[in-house]
Amino acid sequence: MGLEQFKNRNIGTQNYKMLDLEQVPTRNFDKFKQVVKRTFKGELFVGLWVTLRAMINALFRGEMHAVKYPFEKLPISPRYRAIHEMLRLLESGHYRCIGCGLCEKICIANCISMNTRYDENQRKEVSEYTINFGRCIFCGFCAEVCPELAIVHGSRYENASEQRASFSLFEDMLTPIDNLNLQQEYQGFGAVTPYADDHIKKTPLAY
Amino acid sequence: MEATTLGVVIKAIIILAIISAIAGFGTYLERKVLAFMQRRLGPMHVGPYGLMQILADGIKLFTKEDIIPQNANRLIFALAPVITAATAFIALSAVPVFPDFTIPSWIPLLGGTFVPSIAADINIGILFVLGMMAAGLYGPLLAGMAQANKWGIIGAARTAVQFLSYEVVTGLSILAPIMIVGSLSLVDFNNYSSEHGWLMFTQPVAFVLFLIGGFAETNRTPFDLLEHEAEVVSGYATEYSGMRWGMFFIGEYANMITVSVLSAVVFMGGYNDMWFLPGWLAIILKIAFVFFLMLWVRASWPHVRPNQLMWLCWKVLMPIAVINVVVTGIVIMV
Amino acid sequence: MYEQIAFYLFSMLTVILFLITVMSKNVLYAMTSLASGMVLISGFFFILGAEFLGVVQLIVYVGAVMALYSFAMMFFDATRSIKEKNTSSALVFLLGGMSALVLVLMFAAPIFSENIQALYPMHPEAGNAQDVGIVLFTKYLIPFEVAAVMLLVAMIAGIILAGKKMDRSLTQDMSVDMEKEIMIQKDAK
Questions:
Q1: Is the domain of C4 the same as that of C59?
Q2: pTM (2 d.p.)
């Protein structure tokens, strides 16, 4: 659709694509003929065959689509925005956050609050860092703005707690020091989903 | 051999115990078959392949809080589910579910007792079954009217509409086979088809009409107007919970079994031996097929509007049934 | 013995249920007791061995009372009792008592009179569906046919009343009348 066409899309005659529908019968005899035609056309049996085929395929050809959820989970995209994670520096094990406060500033839901202070080496240290998950809308701005890739979105989407404050503390979001070797680098918002090639049918460039 | 009182009592207990168990098992089958047709697994976690799901459902139903709404008519509200369940089982008393058998003599106390195929072998079995199943629709009707709920009233009105529509079709469709056999007894139907072959092939129109009527009678999917969730919340069962609701369910599944048995006995050759299959296995397979057909149709077809149901029954099916009866009469005379 | 027990049970229940039908002010109770009373009456037929009539009673009245229910659903609030307007209870009692008396006389007559006998006794060898058929198509053929014609008339009347073209006359040409009326109105002006 060109720009001109786009601007005038609600004006005058429009480019509707008309469906090729049959005329609705008005006379009684036509209605009768329609009923007879539909009765003997066998469409109902086509419907029966479709479900039976689905059943046979599901039972004997392994096309069962059910995922037994708590026991098996579907892989989620690296772009998925769930509960935040605080990453550590791989070399020293110290947390990456430098206390710049950008995430607190950019947070549109106003749910991040942090306090910082200078430690004995005159480095900034995070004394308190909480995310109110009652307010967080998981927009991902905090992860995008973070200059150190310190706060990122993780993949933990099953949350249960007596109160939301229980899983909003800095220490809970921080990668445990034991699992430092398991820490994965956040791929960011441009990250491609796994097996993306299989899902793409035709690139827009082909047109 | 003559049917003794003991044999009849045993038969009644068999019907009550087995059919209500099968009715419970029917819910499991329905969930499984529907799930497979939608490429799901269905109940899987209670017992092997979810077989114990009925038990879990039963425990849930029994322990659920039994609520009676404030403005409801308490007596009728409590009575309605009993009507559905009771009439469903009374109807089964005149249906030959299994062939006659004698309890083997090595069993203590009951050994040598003759158990008839029908608990109450009345000469007009088929009419009795149809009449009793028709009386069963008082359950939904009274339930809908007693519960002081608008969805319930709509469900009750739909019950009346559906009843008055399909009853004519079922009666007229079964009339042509009755004329051919010349008896109203279900045992005679069975004996006739052992001599002359299945009535399904000599009376295909009546068979299709009876199936359609049977679907309407048991509120199965193309005609499940009474409790269609998308339209009237749950229709007549909106305010019901716990075991009262469970009784509606048992009644519905018992009715499904009755219709399956009726179509198996009347149209599909009954409990006669078939090729290499013994009679009892043949009838179980036939009943299972009709039961599966009901689930299959539920998975496949959309349901009709109430006015479409009335249009179908009065303007299409009833004339066809009458023509069928007239043609059958002419053929018999000539 | 079983038959006697069943008879007294059924008769007691039937009388009680029909009393409720007459006395109750709640339409739901009245209709339900009517329906169950009708079902219990079919029990009498079963006791007498007239199974066919019993089942016919069951089917016919179950359907008929179901139609009554649909009217009750339209006219009354089923959860409340109805305020009755009784103009003359003496008249009601008189008429009701008279018809009850006539009914009792009619049904008690064969017990006391030797002259009234069944012309077509039951054949034990044939089922009673056959008996009913034989009697209907020999002795009562004319009443049977008359009833059939009456039902046909009622059906046609019902179809015409419920038809969509109720505002137009089927026998007269209404357009002529309309033109006349218009002419009269013009003249008046």
A1: yes
A2: 0.77
